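step 4 of 6: structure.
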Amino acid sequence: MADLTLVYFAWVREAIGRDEERVERPAADATVATLIAALAARGGGYAEAFARPDRLRAALDQHFVPMDSPIGDAKELAIFPPVTGG
Amino acid sequence: MADLTLVYFAWVREAIGRDEERVERPAADATVATLIAALAARGGGYAEAFARPDRLRAALDQHFVPMDSPIGDAKELAIFPPVTGG
Amino acid sequence: MNRVSIQAEDFDPAVELAALEASGGGGVASFTGIVRGEGGLVALELEHYPAMTMAQVERIVAEASDRWPLLGVRVIHRFGRLEPGERIVFVGTASRHRTAALEACAFLIDWLKSRAPFWKKEHFADRTEWVEARVEDDAKAESWKR
Amino acid sequence: MNRVSIQAEDFDPAVELAALEASGGGGVASFTGIVRGEGGLVALELEHYPAMTMAQVERIVAEASDRWPLLGVRVIHRFGRLEPGERIVFVGTASRHRTAALEACAFLIDWLKSRAPFWKKEHFADRTEWVEARVEDDAKAESWKR
């Protein structure tokens, strides 16, 4: 099964130091929240970016999703702070 | 004491056939409504214009007033249909 | 920064918006009313009460400035004969906050509808007709009462 | 008649208003957001999620068209570096009815604030700072939920 592309925006991107990366697809029962926890465990910028999950928002294949959504067969997961457009 | 100027707008003006006239100042206890009733009694266009007081609005010296307002020492009384600006 | 014009001539919303944008706020809201050409309407004729109109509209603008933190308000209301597609009215507001600008703009146009001394007569090919005030318009204006 | 642009370039509200005025409605409402130069702000930097932005904004516009009888909607949202006084966003709506135009305009700007994937970074002379989402903005957007 194909890898999963992660994309980061705003201070999440800055803390991690990259705007995109590919990771191995997580287990079938993984949710956005469990993947974020696994990424935070990498330490460094990841730990910093993902220290407070309540300050994060996510989109799967360009649709906003709650943090407990299963990743399923999505191709792209975006992680970012709450949006501030308009 | 000076006369009272009456001004008419929209279909009130058209029914009466003039946009302005001066009348003798009514009695001290006269209200807008009693003056309108007196004008309606003239018959013709006045009777037509003032047949349905609920369809009329008034302003004394350029301020909207309820029909039971005393005319007092106002200089100008305007009588017109509900406004339709904007 | 508040300005009211009651005029027969057309106006340019672009000029008005540019002035409001320059007022230093974060948001500019506007509403432009246009003559609809429905039902075979040939023209709309707007009559007003010159001695009262300007003072009354300025009162409405002052009330809006009192209720919302506005940096600028622009109201233009035309009178005379207007054909379908022509502009009738413009309300523009500038504020630091988008909600203030938008709410004040809605308030102003609602109040102009039911409190500004204008009367509209519709001209059709074969007849004319005075526009009746709409109960909803009065209710809209009343709904802003505090 | 609905059009969305996500662009770095400036735009001309006059051109957008003229197109909306020509859509045959009786009312055109607009909101223009401007960069405020407060607290010594040097520039605002807007980042967005290109793969998502256009589709997401079009969804918001479709939702507005679904809820109000609109004849035209125009949304422009800029990204990149913007200086104080520059325009960030434009929302314009045309409808036969003023209330529909005004409400849809307010709805759209509220939803852009809390549902469009943009992030603002403030540049000051000596530091930069990501703008925090405001709880009120989210509440505003939620308040439109049916």
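step 5 of 6: annotate
 - Chain C has a mean pLDDT of 95.
 - Helices of chain C lie at 13-21, 50-67, 98-115, 135-143.
step 6 of 6: archive
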